Amino acid sequence: MNNQSQLLLAVIVGGGLLAILAGQLWSAARERRRAAEFSEPFPAQWRALLEETLPLYRRMPKALRLRLEPLVRAFLADVRFVGCQGLEVTDEMRLVIAVQACLLIVERDPRAYESLASVLLYPDQFIVNETDEDEAGVVHEGESVLSGQSLDTSRIVLSWRDVQESAVEGDAYNVVLHEFAHYLDNSVGGTLTDLTARRAALEAWHDVLHREYEALCDAVDRGEDVLIDPYGTESTVEFFAVATETFFETPRELREHHPALYAELKGFYGLDPAAW
User: Fold this and answer.
1) Which of 46, 183, 186, 188 could form a disulfide with 42 if both were Cys (CB 3.0 to 4.6 A apart)?
2) Cβ neighbourhood burial of 50 (10 Å; 0-12, 13-18, 19+)
3) Same domain, 163 and 194
C-alpha cells in the first residue's frame, strides 16, 4: 500500500470514527433533553381530565401518579396514534390510553414499550379476517368482530367506544389493560402464558396460572357465576389478559376469592391495587 492509499484509508477510518462519536453525542444530548422534558409535571388540566374521566386513575395513590407521569410523557412522544374509519384522535384519547398502558410497566420495566410504534384507534368495534387450520389440516376462513387486538410488538388496535366503556367504577372490563397485557406477553415470546416454557423463574407463576385457568374452565362449565371474565377460558393467553383487568379494576374481590393469583400478579406488576 503506497503513502497516498494509507492516507486515504486513515481519512476514511477517522471520518467513520468521528461519525460514530457524533452519533453517540447526539443520542446522549437527545436523552438529556428528553429527561428534562419528561421530568416536568403534568399540566393541571391533564390531571383534572384524568380525575374526571378515569376511575382507575382516581384510585391511584398520589406517589404512583407522579411516577407514572414521565412514562406517560415518553409514551405520548414515542407512540403514534392513528385514527381509523374517520376517527379524529384527540389529546384526551391519547392521554387516557397512555396512562393505563404505562400503569402496567411503571414498576416492572419502564422500557417495555420501546418497540411499540403505533396505536390504531377505531371509533367502535372492528372486523378482522382470520384463518384457522383444524386438526385435519383444513384451513377455515372467517371474520371476527373485535374491541381490541395486540398484533405484535409494534402495533395495538383499540375500539374507542370500548375504551370509554372501560371507565365504569366497579366493572372489571378494561380493553386497554387487556391488550397491553397481551403486548407484554408477546414481547417475551409468549412465555408468560405458555405452560410448556421451561424456565425456573416462571415455574411458580405457571403453576398458579394452570390451576386458576382450569378452575375457571370448570366453574364456567358448571354454569357458576365467576369473578374473572369467562372469556378467559379461551386459552391461558386470554386468561392472563382478563386476570390483569380484574387485578386492577376489582382488586379486593380478586384478592379475596383468588389470593394465589392476586399474589402472583402483585409480584409481576410490582403493584398492590387492593391497598389503594
Assistant:
1) 46
2) buried
3) no
